[in-house]
């Protein structure tokens, strides 16, 4: 088991609130959660005068107004941020935004708390099915690092109760069995690292009884946000037993994480991924989000994906455009810029390491950027058209009806004319465009 002494200790002991923290405390995931910063006051007690009073004031103003998510950062994550250059630090920019960084308005007119209408695709509490062979299972609303662009921010901001208490897992499993054939289950939240082990272990073991299942994907940011959770002997032993039993039934178990900037990858991440692989996980994949001021430069994306593979043994997978959520306008990148970055990466990485840039759309799911069917340059509005992955019951691809989905560019990237046109209700705007756009499922 790797030690947390040395360089890692020097990193966390730079923070005034953690100067007396021992390596044993730092290695304890429960200590990490208990000592997370969940308020501006918490942050001030940890950072002290590493940042000026104006920083705390701007943060407090954001939390009181525009912030779509409450504050929540693990000590480990706080230790990764370069506080001597806090305003420029990319890790700070997307997990601890300031009021002064928000756009005015902070949200696009089409922004919604549930931008992909997951509630419509939920056949049972805690389950989301947007694709015929894949089911998403949500076991928690909690996460070691709360990000303001999270697609399930609605569950945190509204104070919703956890989806599935332990006593209801049997009902959830019955629902999964009733959905067969399901080949792929993504177990997520929130974050798996927030699910008690006494609940996680039997639940994952029960999934192996689904006869049609071929892969279980575990979704967690723990390799970069809470590597202490990964390094627990109990967790690694559980995964070793689970992957062995799964292999005997022809089921793979893999892990999906989210790393958005190379600065987040440390020796702790490398050790965590190595331990997961040693425990039998088939693969660790990364799904990044394209964020303005964080990773919207080709050289940053190149460094990120090289470091993921060469140092951390994480396979690049997707790069998603930021979803149409409230309060994320300052993070969103116009589609043309995303296409440019995608093209800049071509040939710079081996094919299997080149991430696929995607936009996730209501009804249509993940679509490539260059598969759009049209766009309005004044409105900065792009649209895609095709058959939905989930067809109505009794419908085949031969008699199904195509649908249209849209994605708008950020308002601040438009001309004055374009911004003025968005002053109207967005449904009225769509009604004046091609007929296919008049019934967009938003």
Overview of the molecule:
It is a single chain. The chain has 442 residues and is an alpha/beta fold. The protein folds into two domains: 7-101, no CATH class; 127-439, TIM Barrel. It is built from 18 helices and twelve strands. The chain has helices at residues 7-12, 23-26, 29-34, 40-47, 53-64, 75-80, 90-95, 153-157, 169-178, 197-207, 222-225, 227-230, 233-248, 267-278, 298-310, 335-345, 416-421, 426-431, and strands at 127-131, 134-138, 184-188, 215-219, 252-257, 284-290, 315-321, 356-361, 365-368, 374-376, 381-386, 403-408. Strands 1-2-3-4-5-6-7-8-9 form a nine-stranded mixed beta sheet. The chain is globular. Mean pLDDT is 91; it is low at 157-164.
Helix content: 25-40%
Mean pLDDT: 91
Assigned CATH superfamily of the largest domain: Aldolase class I
Q: Please tell me the total number of domains.
A: 2
Poorly predicted runs of 5 or more residues:
157-164
CATH architecture of the largest domain: Alpha-Beta Barrel
Structural class call reads alpha/beta
Q: How many beta strands in the DSSP annotation?
A: 12
Q: H/E series, N to C?
A: HHHHHHHEEHHEHEHHHEHEHEHEEEEEHH
Shape: globular
Counting H and I runs of at least 4 residues, what is the number of helices?
A: 18
Rg over C-alpha atoms, rounded to the nearest angstrom: 22 Å
- Write down the CATH class of the largest domain: Alpha Beta
- Strand adjacency order, main sheet: 1-2-3-4-5-6-7-8-9
N-end to C-end Cα span: 49 Å
